[in-house]
Every structure is written in C-alpha cells, then in structure tokens.
Amino acid sequence: MARRPFIAGNWKMNMTAESGTKLIKELIPLVKDADCDVALCVPAILIPAMTEVAKGSNIAIGAENMHWEPKGAYTGEISADMLKEYGVKYVIIGHSERRQYFGETDETVNKRTKAVLAAGMTPITCIGETLEEREGGVTEKVLDRQLEIGLAGIEDITKVVIAYEPVWAIGTGRTATDEQAQETIAYIRKKIGQLFCPKCAEKVIIQYGGSMNAANCKGLMAQPDIDGGLIGSASLKADFAKIVNYNKYFED
C-alpha cells in the first residue's frame, strides 16, 4: 500500500521570529515541488509568526506539545483551541526529551494523543528505546509498553503518525543503520496490526526520528516501512530541503 511520505522538522527550543522567518522564506521555493508532506513543528511562541510566513506554501506549521485539558489552571501549557486558532495541523506528543526532562509518561502521552485527535489535528506520537534498553535486549518490550499504553482507546489509528526515535540516536550524531531502523519500524507496524488491525497498520505513517540528515536520508527512506522523518537539528537550516527532496538530490 502506497503511503505518502511525511517529513517534519522539530525546532525544539531554537530559533526566533527573525531567524525562523528567514529560514522558512529560504525553504519555500526549495520544497514547493516535494513528493511528500512537509511540516515544521516550532516553539509555541513562534506559531503565529511562522504560520503567517508559511501561508500559501506547502509547509504546514505544527506544535511541539499540547495539554490534554481544553483549558484551566495549567501554567505554561498550550491548549488545542490556542493551536487551532492559528491553523496548526500537527502536534508532536511524547518526544523523548519531554519524557526525560519533563516527566512525560505513557499515560500522559495517551491523554495528549487523544486530545489532539479530538481537536481534529494530527498527533505525531513518539516512541523509542534508550541505549541501555537496546543493549539490554528489551527494545521490543519497551516499544510494546509504549504502544499498548500510549495508543490505548484510540478509535482510528490511521489518524496518528508514529515517530520511532531511538533515544540513543537523538542529537548524538549516532544514527541507527538503515537495517536497524527498518527492522524496528517493521516490528512497530506489526505490533500496531496486532493492537488494531493489519489493514490499519499498513496505512499508518511511521517516521524515523534519530539524527536523519541530508547524508543518510536516502538510505533510510528507501526502506519499505519507513515513511518519513522527524528531523531535529537538521531542520534548523536550509539543508532541510535536501531531506524533504530525498528522492531528487542528496549529499553523498
């Protein structure tokens, strides 16, 4: 089954309105003919400005997080209505840095994912193992837990984008081999098929999210179960366009 590839950037806590505007203006002509969906998930404070800059282009603006409650006394959090007001389409949920630094759990990932879906947006729900877990041979056990709890009660799994992020490859410059990434993502797809249905699993977009860049994107994207990338540091410069256009040009 043909799944449309999806390349999303995650700016994390980087960029300003000025630098972000400059980058998006550079990217617009470079990615306008891309054969994939394109998004940039940016800090909440930049969403209004970046939405305006990207207007009329094929670059969707996404958010990096969202609370599961519609409103209330949750200082520092962002609600669905706040994001929808600016036309946000995608929301990253459960990034490993949210889990590591801010106490995100599989249970809160589940709440946030459901809230994004209920608001009519698309969650990019992140899962992945640490180096200790991979070397300990419990990768599949960890992924099983994250999928079973994080996706519990989801009515239509095809509306969720899954980002597989081997935590040991995020921001380290260390990348899973093409074969490692394919093997693990194929396992994730099989598990989704068991939790939901095999036909549903074949429709789910599964991204690779561990230090994908212009030099390695072609090999990763050639794998049958890898449908795109969740790009960190490489999305902070115009070279992001080379990843988006992985099937047209790339660095050797």
Secondary structure layout plus pairing:
Layout: E1 6-10, H1 17-31, E2 37-42, H2 47-54, E3 59-63, H3 80-84, E4 90-93, H4 96-102, H5 106-118, E5 122-127, H6 131-135, H7 139-150, E6 161-164, H8 178-195, H9 198-203, E7 206-208, H10 217-221, E8 228-231, H11 240-244
Parallel strand pairs: 1-2, 1-8, 2-3, 4-5, 5-6, 6-7
Structural features, described:
This protein is of the alpha/beta class and 252 residues long. 39% of the residues lie in helices and 15% in strands. It has helices spanning 17-31, 47-54, 80-84, 96-102, 106-118, 131-135, 139-150, 178-195, 198-203, 217-221, 240-244, and strands at 6-10, 37-42, 59-63, 90-93, 122-127, 161-164, 206-208, 228-231. It has a four-stranded parallel beta sheet with strand order 3-2-1-8. It starts with 5 loop residues before the first strand and ends in an 8-residue tail after the last helix.
